[in-house]
């Protein structure tokens, strides 16, 4: 059959989609990008915040229309929303034939077998859950009991699992662990993804070797807390050792880590980053806030002072490191004074990249018990103010980069102009960070995944403009 898939949410979800596509292809199915041409449609959903849930519902309903009016015979819903709202989805959208949670990725092949096979796969999964003594009701958005499975998922893929990359050929995400052991007040991920569980290092290295042999130049290591890697297995120093092993994999040029928790970054990891020439001097450090009072309500370890010491330690050991973080505006109880503390922190620390989310009240989190007392309009205003402040910081820094000679990776043609190439520096991750636009060049001479030397000749707010100095 022809299988079409929509993958929503974060790169961790994307890896699950790639594994499902690989399993489907291994089972003999064909893949299509055209929903109208698909016999089976799969929607891999996100349920992290309200906006993500709405996007998932919209996608499911759109695919349901293809099933009612087109070629599609089977509609499968997977991922975080499926994990959290399994029975509600089937009740509200009867076009859905199978619902697979985050721990049921391997069951995708049975679910693709048409309506009968999909129904059987769902029935088997339901039967398994009914026998699980750990089963208890969850809560759904309206506050009533939600039927579903709170048995924590345990699945994680390995180096031998089929996988079909959905990213450009020259970079790939590698999930080094799954789940999370933290209890941050605003986050539902531990419920959706289970306890933290690291993959064995040899599995990760073998996967990296396979990807490199297939043309991947940039490896992006992801998990819910990448710096916690190995701790669940009692393996102290595991991440530093893994970085050094990956640094020896032939064919790779860049190794980038995303999602490092601020209290689990040890000096051994910073030393490994400094000593490994392929490991990007780039740290993605979601801090969420800088007011001690808000951090306490968020159940986040650390204080503004400990964060400032951490940033000093990182910059001392990794000169010219690029730092990325995310913050939440409008967490319950956030006062004008506490938000001003966050503003002063952003202004003083000079992050290279900052993302700001408005607080989203999530049933099933401890923050849901707090009064959501910051008006939606105030949340949006604070988000805008913080991003405006960060923009001034970045624009000033980008102008100071004009004249620098840099090494960059080519991602491909720019959608803005046929004679412009788009690429990135070591301090820029794909999809989430600004880019470099390469001008004064013949696009036919530059292929995606190649590395070139260039000179920064200008800036466009967040983005940079460069010209090649060598091909």
What does the model show?
It is a single chain. Strand 3 (40-45), helix 2 and strand 4 form a beta-alpha-beta unit. The protein is globular. The protein has helices at 11-26, 50-69, 80-84, 86-92, 108-111, 114-130, 189-193, 201-213, 238-247, 267-275, 292-298, 304-317, 336-349, 376-399, and strands at 2-7, 30-31, 40-45, 74-79, 98-100, 138-139, 145-146, 171-175, 177-178, 197-198, 218-222, 254-257, 282-284, 322-329, 353-358, 405-413, 421-425, 436-438, 451-460, 463-468. The chain has 14 helices and 20 strands. The chain is α/β, with parallel strands linked by helices and 471 residues long. The longest helix is centred in the last third of the chain and has 24 residues, at 376-399. A 5-stranded parallel sheet has the order 2-1-3-4-5, sandwiched between helices. A 5-stranded mixed barrel has the order 16-17-18-20-19. It has a 3-stranded parallel sheet with strand order 8-11-12. Helix 8 runs parallel beside helix 9 and helix 9 runs parallel beside helix 10 (267-275). The model is unreliable at 114-149 (pLDDT under 50).
